[in-house]
Description:
Layout: E1 5-9, H1 18-25, E2 30-32, H2 48-61, H3 83-102, E3 107-110, H4 126-150, E4 156-160, H5 173-182, E5 189-194, H6 195-200, H7 208-221, E6 227-232, E7 234-235, E8 246-247, H8 256-263, E9 272-275, H9 283-292
Parallel strand pairs: 1-2, 1-9, 3-4, 4-5, 5-6, 6-9
Antiparallel strand pairs: 7-8
Helix pairs in contact: 1-2, 3-4, 4-5
Amino acid sequence: MNNKFIGAHVSVSGGVQNGPLNAMAIGAKAFALFTKNQKRWEAKPFDTKTLDAWFKNLSDSGILPKHILPHDSYLINLGHHEEEKLIKSRNAFIDELERCDILGLDRLNFHPGSHLQKFSKRAEDYDDLIYGAELECLDVIAESINIALDKTKNVKAVIENTAGQGTNLGYKFEHLAHIIEKVEDKSRIGVCIDTCHMFTAGYDIRTREAYDKTWGDFDKIVGREFLMGMHINDSKPPLGSRVDRHHSLGEGEIGWDAFSYMMNDDRMDDIPMVLETIDDTIWDQEIKNLYSLIK
């Protein structure tokens, strides 16, 4: 039996309680959402009316909490080199984890962070400068996660791989593995793989051979036991471009074969598989198309 749970990153305009309703409207068995405005630092606490409606709508949807993948604010940078901004990011991340716990959710998806080209003073040339900045930033990110997990409970921190645009880290499997290795509580750390980010970071998944190699490398470097979510997106930019621009399924550079492989890959069983493609008016059809690929 194929055990796939597909949905999309749905709107919560009007309140988080609308997330399950919007998921139901597109035939989703999973979904992602922001638990607050992703472009603001602060958010009001949930009121009783909102929480009651959230739990009722979630129950009516039949979607399990483990198949929901909330995403944190885009403002947070857990690897920031400036202490004041780092503390602000850490506090915001802790608040995001607490909001997920209040909603009964068990995981929070986040972008690891950016080094902002603040280079290591120990480096001797440009390549060493980049490597040093990345390594130091990855260590700060891991420290941020440890601090946040120590001050919260229940919710897993799920690192999203990135395309590597700008100075964003997490575009290499080795980055993800480094962070995980430094996190003290391995039971509360995981990874979400975005297919567009994976592809534009240089990991090919378009052919059977390429797909097997890429995911074999993931298993060896990161470990499949840490895979706790997927973002299912095609890509406008080509392989290895390090540019983050999503496309509708089958209309980009990745193509349908890769998504067929995923729908029949037991690595992706029983985790949220979430569309972030560019046309929300066809999400219901994209969900149907993905299910139709199951053999």
